[in-house]
């Protein structure tokens, strides 16, 4: 090693440069902090303990703790294998995929789709969809801010920050009830300046699992109308929350019925298990077709210098599945299986904790919905979970229910009980 | 007229206002009205009389969830309230189209507020992309003679897209293995990052052995360039990127959107249809110290004109002299000469001098993986520690852009490059592709020389390398190519030889000669 360094130093000196050139251009580059979510899995993988449990990242696992590739996906892959065309997709992505995706969010027979009022582009999963929107918001509403719920998926803050859109927060989670702080939420909505931009989780709020009820959504929608606010929905779990995609899109339906011109980020990472394929969609409901065409063209302008056009494989899988009635039926069945297993684990975890005689209330585990549970554990308690019990989760106390199995639920319950019983 | 119960405290009305904008689309919205409210609605009463009535029990059921607050009608609508105008009556006719009114099934007092104007009212139509828009125009053309020499995507002699055999084999392997679809790490597939750096620098290269290269999988060339641009913006605020004149159109967009200032260095000399070497050196010298110099590793896009090895040495000299940072865009490794190593020689020359540099790679062309979006950004640093830190910051840029990159293309590359048999097969296929392009260049040159009575020197076609040829045709002449001859190309005079067959060379020669000599 030293020998090689010696050689390159000499080469540089020969070429007329002193040791000055050895100092890097990158001297001011600090090591970045580890991503709080993805860093958990890294730590988990590095742990040699046989008892370790990963309830960190939100990727579905079956009851054996194994990643799952849906049958409908495997079948779709078989059908598209040997495809003779790897040509660039248009900048807006696969038209087929986008059409099918809009039906999921806006309704199978949506007038908005028929009237071509939706500007929609294929995006790099939910992250990419949110980022396209944030950049679009910055470009066309440069004076606007984004209101983000507290808490939210950590990457939301990164996205709007890198898009240079200033952020405000609004109340969402009520730590005492481990439910929705509806009164404060409504206050924040009312007190925000008219015409503010709000980020809403359509269903299965990440990280809390706490969703507004249907009645509450209607009130939120009404108040948004009064204030002229813009609603941007991040819908990463359609189908995954209740097992029924139509039901999971209810909040969006309410807003559409009330006449809002909304934006939606959709992702197939969880509900189709296409995590690594990065498939999603950004849509903006416009006043008319002409505006939708203009908006779409501008979204493409943002995509072009970011990645030119989106990846094809995932899009082909999605459109193959959703375009075939049999495969679509299979998908709906498989999504329900995943959702049901999660709901089953919620019940099991709660029952285990209650059986252990925990003095605390664990109702919230079954009240909350979707992949995540906001346990209420403090960062210090989380650290104990990791250090003493080899249980990996994010320090905000978020548990990914997908990582719980019949095999580890009692171990997990025991650990939670141990760290929290003296609280 | 309508029952008292229809106007009780919890009554729900929908209000229709005609909004005077150019967008005449109206929607319905149900808003609650309290007893104190109706005075706001007085102007609407006459309109109410024209409407049908909601049965009272229907109203009760729809009222449950609504907060009864007075609706401040005046504040919330930018448009005028234009009741009783012809707009309104035309709306009433349109009303049946409204998706959520369901007026067919039951009568209701039905007034819908035209929602406040879209937030994005001011959004104008973006111009079509100058490169990708060409293919769109080509597809719309019905002529039998049409020829697509626009986007740089390889075609066979039959002008069909080409999926490499090694890619098909790799995909079959992957299908058989039944791999999962879990998230990649933010920096991408480790196996891919390893082979891509080795392919670029050579497996035993000191920069790799000393772990001085920060490699992050990116979304093909574009995505990798964008990560680098964001890194430059963050850590070298104010530093400029020097780009060749001309260069790939999207380079400017990338630096613009990343908010990195850029300026051009002379590159193409129209007089010689070759490299303006003195201009290039001069402009690089004149730039402020510590600028980034964007260089095309091989097969310059759009001109096809590459520096000679001697010229590369001189370019490296002046870059070192001015303390600039070289930034290579390598989109055609293997595709230019047919040899992966030969096409990487410019990058390796700079690395051998111990310079720190950036390199964006793409597998779109050389592995035909266009739509899979697979590439990488490599940052060669003077120490392993710096490389680790740089890599962590690249990840921080990627996370709020797309979280982690797509798996499919990365696995294909890792499988092809990582398997000796497939790797060799790939090299053979690449030689075939590059060979076909060389043959087409020869045939085009022969056709032009034979047909052109004016004795113009067309040898630049043979001297240029890679997928593209810069014909020297002006914008107007390029338009003539399209309008008269149905030959689709970019307006800068660039033709993609990858889209040309031997069979079409004579036709193309006719078109070029005509456009060149008869159009000005």
From TrEMBL, chain A:
GO term, biological process aspect, one: amino acid metabolic process
Catalytic activity: L-aspartate + 2-oxoglutarate = oxaloacetate + L-glutamate
UniProt enzyme class: transferase
Keyword Transferase: yes
E.C. code: 2.6.1.1
The protein's required cofactors: pyridoxal 5'-phosphate
Keyword annotations of the record: Aminotransferase, Pyridoxal phosphate, Transferase
GO cellular component, as recorded: mitochondrion
Superkingdom in the source lineage: Eukaryota
Subunit structure: Homodimer.
Similarity-based family: Belongs to the class-I pyridoxal-phosphate-dependent aminotransferase family.
Comment field (misc): In eukaryotes there are cytoplasmic, mitochondrial and chloroplastic isozymes.
Protein name as it appears in the record: Aspartate aminotransferase
Organism: Vitis vinifera
UniProtKB/TrEMBL annotation, chain B:
A GO MF label: L-aspartate:2-oxoglutarate aminotransferase activity
BP GO terms, sorted: amino acid metabolic process
Keyword terms, alphabetized: Aminotransferase, Pyridoxal phosphate, Transferase
Catalytic activity: L-aspartate + 2-oxoglutarate = oxaloacetate + L-glutamate
Protein origin, superkingdom: Eukaryota
Top EC class, one word: transferase
Cofactor: pyridoxal 5'-phosphate
EC number in record: 2.6.1.1
Domain Aminotransferase class I/classII large: 145-512
Other notes: In eukaryotes there are cytoplasmic, mitochondrial and chloroplastic isozymes.
Subunit structure, as described in the record: Homodimer.
Protein family: Belongs to the class-I pyridoxal-phosphate-dependent aminotransferase family.
This protein's name: Aspartate aminotransferase
Organism of origin: Vitis vinifera (Grape)
């Amino acid at each position: 090693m030293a020998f090689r360094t010696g050689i390159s130093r000499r080469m540089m000196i020969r070429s007329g440069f002193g040791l000055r050139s050895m100092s890097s251009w990158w001297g001011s580059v600090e090591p970045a902090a580890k991503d709080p979510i993805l860093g958990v899995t890294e730590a988990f993988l590095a742990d040699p303990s046989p008892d370790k449990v990963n309830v960190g990242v939100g990727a579905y696992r079956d009851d054996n703790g194994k990643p799952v590739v849906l049958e409908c996906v495997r079948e779709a892959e078989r059908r598209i294998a040997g495809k003779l065309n790897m040509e660039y997709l248009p900048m807006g992505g696969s038209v087929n995929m986008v059409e099918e995706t809009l039906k999921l969010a806006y309704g199978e027979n949506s007038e908005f789709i028929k009237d071509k009022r939706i500007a929609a582009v294929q995006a790099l999963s939910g992250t990419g969809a949110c980022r396209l929107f944030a950049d679009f918001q910055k470009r066309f509403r440069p004076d606007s801010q984004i209101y983000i719920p507290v808490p939210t998926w950590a990457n939301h803050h990164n996205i709007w920050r890198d898009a240079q859109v200033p952020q405000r927060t609004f109340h969402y989670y009520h730590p005492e009830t481990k439910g929705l702080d509806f009164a404060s939420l409504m206050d924040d909505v009312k007190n925000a300046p008219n015409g503010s931009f709000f980020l809403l989780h359509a269903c299965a709020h990440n990280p809390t699992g706490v969703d507004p009820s249907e009645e509450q959504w209607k009130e939120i929608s009404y108040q948004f109308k009064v204030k002229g606010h813009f609603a941007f929905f991040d819908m990463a779990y359609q189908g995954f929350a209740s097992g029924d995609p139509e039901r999971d899109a209810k909040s969006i339906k309410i807003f559409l019925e009330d006449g809002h011109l909304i934006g939606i980020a959709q992702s197939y990472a969880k509900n189709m298990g296409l995590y690594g394929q990065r498939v999603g969609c950004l849509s903006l409901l416009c006043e008319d077709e002409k505006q939708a065409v203009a908006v779409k063209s501008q979204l493409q302008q943002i995509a072009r210098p970011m990645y030119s056009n989106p990846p094809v494989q995932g899009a082909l899988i999605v459109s193959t599945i959703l375009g075939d009635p049999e495969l679509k039926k299979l998908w709906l069945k498989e999504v329900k299986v995943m959702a049901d297993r999660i709901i089953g684990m919620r019940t099991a975890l709660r029952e285990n904790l209650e059986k252990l005689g925990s003095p605390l209330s664990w109702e919230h585990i079954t009240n909350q919905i979707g992949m995540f549970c906001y346990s209420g554990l403090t960062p210090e308690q989380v650290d104990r979970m990791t250090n003493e019990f080899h249980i990996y989760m994010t320090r905000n106390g978020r548990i990914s229910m997908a990582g719980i199995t019949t095999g580890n639920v009692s171990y997990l319950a025991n650990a939670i009980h141990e760290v929290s019983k003296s609280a | 007229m309508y029952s008292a119960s229809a106007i009780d405290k919890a009554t729900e009305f929908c209000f229709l206002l005609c909004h005077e904008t150019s967008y005449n689309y109206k929607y319905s919205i149900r808003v609650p009205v309290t007893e104190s409210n109706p005075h706001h609605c007085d102007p609407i009463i006459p309109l109410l009389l024209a409407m049908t009535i909601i049965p009272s029990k229907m109203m009760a059921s729809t009222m449950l969830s609504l907060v009864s607050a007075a609706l401040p009608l005046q504040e919330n609508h930018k448009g005028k309230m234009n009741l009783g105008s012809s707009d309104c009556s035309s709306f009433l006719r349109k009303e049946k189209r409204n998706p959520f009114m369901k007026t067919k099934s039951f009568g209701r007092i039905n007034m819908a507020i035209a929602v406040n104007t879209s937030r994005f009212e001011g959004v104008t139509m973006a111009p079509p992309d100058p490169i990708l828009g060409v293919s769109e125009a080509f597809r719309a053309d019905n002529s039998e003679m049409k020829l697509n020499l626009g986007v740089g995507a390889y075609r066979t002699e039959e002008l069909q897209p080409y999926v490499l055999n090694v890619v098909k084999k790799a995909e079959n392997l992957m299908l058989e293995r039944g791999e999962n679809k879990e998230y990649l790490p933010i920096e991408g597939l480790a196996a891919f990052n390893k082979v891509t750096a080795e392919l670029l620098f050579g497996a035993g290269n000191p920069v790799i052995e000393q772990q001085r290269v920060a490699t992050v999988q990116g979304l093909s060339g574009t995505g990798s360039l964008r990560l680098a641009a964001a890194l430059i913006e963050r850590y070298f605020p104010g530093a400029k990127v020097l780009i060749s004149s001309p260069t790939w159109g999207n380079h400017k967009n990338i630096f613009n959107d990343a908010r990195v200032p850029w300026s051009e260095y002379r590159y193409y000399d129209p007089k010689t249809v070759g490299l303006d070497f003195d201009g290039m050196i001069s402009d690089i010298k004149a730039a402020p110290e510590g600028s980034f110099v964007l260089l095309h590793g091989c097969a310059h896009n759009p001109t096809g004109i590459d520096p000679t090895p001697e010229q590369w040495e001189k370019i490296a000299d002046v870059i070192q002299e001015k303390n600039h940072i070289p930034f290579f865009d390598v989109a055609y490794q293997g595709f230019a000469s047919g040899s992966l190593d030969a096409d990487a020689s410019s990058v390796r020359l700079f690395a051998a001098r111990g310079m720190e540099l950036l390199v964006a790679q793409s597998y779109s062309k050389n592995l035909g993986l266009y739509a899979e979006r697979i590439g990488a950004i490599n940052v060669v640093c003077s120490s392993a520690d710096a490389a680790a830190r740089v890599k962590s910051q690249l990840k921080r840029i990627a996370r709020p852009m797309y979280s982690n990159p797509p798996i499919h293309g990365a696995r294909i590359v890792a499988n092809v490059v990582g398997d000796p048999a497939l790797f060799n097969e790939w090299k053979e296929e690449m030689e075939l592709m590059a060979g076909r392009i060389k043959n087409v260049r020869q045939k085009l040159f022969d056709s032009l020389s034979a047909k052109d009575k004016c004795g113009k020197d067309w040898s630049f076609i043979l001297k240029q390398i890679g997928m593209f040829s810069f014909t020297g045709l002006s914008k107007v002449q390029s338009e003539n190519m399209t309008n008269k001859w149905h030959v689709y190309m970019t307006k800068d005079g660039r033709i993609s030889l990858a889209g040309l067959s031997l069979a079409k060379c004579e036709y193309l020669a006719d078109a070029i000669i005509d456009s060149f000599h008869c159009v000005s």
